[in-house]
UniProtKB/TrEMBL annotation:
Gene3D superfamilies: Cysteine-tRNA ligase, C-terminal anti-codon recognition domain (1.20.120.1910), HUPs (3.40.50.620). The lineage of its organism: Bacteria, Candidatus Wolfeibacteriota. A motif ('KMSKS' region) lies at residues 273-277. InterPro entries: Cys-tRNA-ligase, Cys-tRNA-synt_Ia_DALR, Cys-tRNA/MSH_ligase, CysS_C, Rossmann-like_a/b/a_fold, tRNA-synt_1_cat_dom, tRNAsynth_Ia_anticodon-bd. ATP binds at K276. Keywords: Aminoacyl-tRNA synthetase, ATP-binding, Cytoplasm, Ligase, Metal-binding, Nucleotide-binding, Protein biosynthesis, Zinc. One of its GO terms (biological process) is cysteinyl-tRNA aminoacylation. Its cofactor is Zn(2+). This is Cysteine--tRNA ligase.
Length: 472
């Protein structure tokens, strides 16, 4: 049974994995994609890696999942940035959409079935607004079309907000014709003489509000305004996701709009959210210039997807150390040459570790504990590695690599470049002559080239070291 924490109900939902080939319709998952006005940073990486892990695991457990992500290519932030840089907003959005796909590719994210741009769904957006007018939920002012929050009784159901408190704390309202400070824009009219993107509409030239873009894309691609899973970063819960629910349920009259809501925790830098506006962000591409992608994956996997994470030196160093010890263990297994069959004790230990790994992943994708189970397996064999035979070593290695693969971690290649191999061989010859200080000198040289060497009774073992220096 796979258990998923549902933000909407505050409860854990149980989902029975289907028998292979028996699930008729895929689970539909919508995850809020990026607003394409800048390079994506580690805060985005956290969310998209989390959903990549979740979807990959669900698929591994035989669930069919159709994963849809929207691209917000119409937004105030895009227009502001375009004005700042004297660029055309459409061109700016196209450029950063491209960089987003590049970043997702370098993170190894392949789980998304479809990306959909808001600008390709203007017709569906307008159709939803028309239906909201007909049902009495939409009204027009001189600035645009708004959704009347007071008309929708369940507003606040997802975020469990005290709406009156929110109304009192509202900042200065730019549109005095709004009936309620919480009413949100469905359609924004273009300002006179402004260089903005706009589309004609029955209400006037303008562009869509943010929330309606997502419900329109969901309806267009899923064919319905009701589906199984919706995900996004926790800070999108209010007002974005709350407003999506209001729009969709007001149009369809069906509840709930989405059965299970999943939210990823925030990424903090010195107690503040990593964000564009605070200028405390590290872009995905800058991070990957300094560290292998496996380090980033492990760093995030060491935290539960719903927990907040503090980004600091330890975040990277601990992940790199964890990867180093996996690589060291795998390289040592490669040295084992002894003949023999797989012993029953070895088999039992592997089976126990596998069960634990799956139990942890089944329990709301608890990746830190699944990783801990993997390390328990490694630790259990490390101390008696010399007593293993070759068949056992292969079985253990395959188990470790498979579990890492389920988590989306591809361990860096264990093959050595020729210069490192010949340095290791030279060091062995010197050691055989018992010239230990010269051997030590060579070890340092190998380390400065980014490789680790360790002498074991089975011979020297070497592996590529992850993140030699955080501040490099
Ligand atoms: Zn969204």
């Amino acid at each position: 049974m796979v258990v998923i924490y549902n933000t909407l109900t505050g409860k854990k939902e149980r989902m029975k994995p289907p028998k292979p080939g028996r699930q008729k319709k895929p689970l539909r998952l919508f995850v809020c994609g990026p607003t394409v006005y800048d390079y994506s940073h580690l805060g985005h990486a956290r969310t998209y890696l989390a959903f990549d892990t979740i979807v990959n695991y669900l698929r591994h457990r035989e669930f069919l999942v159709f994963y849809l992500q929207n691209i917000t290519d119409i937004d105030d932030k895009i227009i502001e940035r375009a004005v700042e840089e004297r660029k055309n907003p459409k061109e700016l959005a196209v450029f950063f959409e491209k960089t987003y796909y590049q970043d997702m590719k370098s993170l190894g994210i392949k789980s998304v079935n479809k990306y959909e741009r808001a600008s390709d769904h203007i017709q569906e957006i307008q159709s939803q607004i028309s239906r909201l007018f007909k049902k009495g939920y939409a009204y027009q002012t001189k600035n645009g079309v708004y959704f009347s929050v007071k008309k929708f009784k369940n507003y606040g159901i997802l975020s469990r907000q005290n709406l009156d408190e929110l109304r009192h704390g509202w900042r200065i309202e730019p549109d005095l014709e709004k009936k309620d400070p919480l009413d949100f824009a469905l359609w924004k009219f273009i300002k006179p003489n402004a260089k903005e993107l706009f589309w004609p509409s029955p209400w006037g030239d303008g562009r869509p509000g943010w929330h309606i873009e997502d419900t329109a894309i969901a309806e267009a691609i899923f064919g319905k305004l009701q589906y199984e899973l919706h995900g996004g970063a926790i800070d999108l819960k209010f007002p974005h996701h709350e407003s999506e629910i209001a729009q969709a349920e007001a149009i369809s009259g069906k509840k709930p709009y989405v059965k299970i809501w999943l939210h990823t925790g925030v990424l903090l830098v010195e107690e503040e959210k990593m964000s564009k506006s605070l200028r405390n962000f590290i872009t995905i591409r800058d991070f990957l210039k300094r560290h292998p992608v496996a380090v980033m994956r492990v760093a995030f996997l060491r935290h539960h997807y719903r927990s907040p994470i503090n980004y600091n030196q330890g975040f990277v160093i601990q992940a790199a150390n964890a990867l180093n010890s996996i690589l060291e263990f795998l390289s040592k297994l490669n040295l084992i040459k002894k003949n023999g069959a797989v012993g029953s004790m070895t088999r039992e230990k592997i089976e126990t570790a596998k069960k634990e790994f799956y139990a942890k992943m089944d329990e709301d994708f608890n990746t830190p504990e699944a990783l801990a189970a993997l390390f328990k397996l490694i630790g259990g064999f490390q101390s008696q590695i010399q007593s293993l035979n070759k068949k056992e070593a292969i079985l253990i290695k395959n188990t470790v690599v498979k579990q890492l693969r389920i988590l989306g971690v591809k361990p860096p290649s264990s093959s050595m470049p020729p210069n490192i191999r010949s340095l290791i061989a030279a060091r062995e010859r010197i050691r055989a002559k018992r010239e230990f200080s010269r051997a030590d000198h060579l070890r340092k040289k190998i380390e400065t080239l980014g490789y680790m060497v360790e002498d074991t009774p089975m011979g020297p073992v070497a592996w590529k070291k992850m993140v030699p220096d955080y501040n490099q």
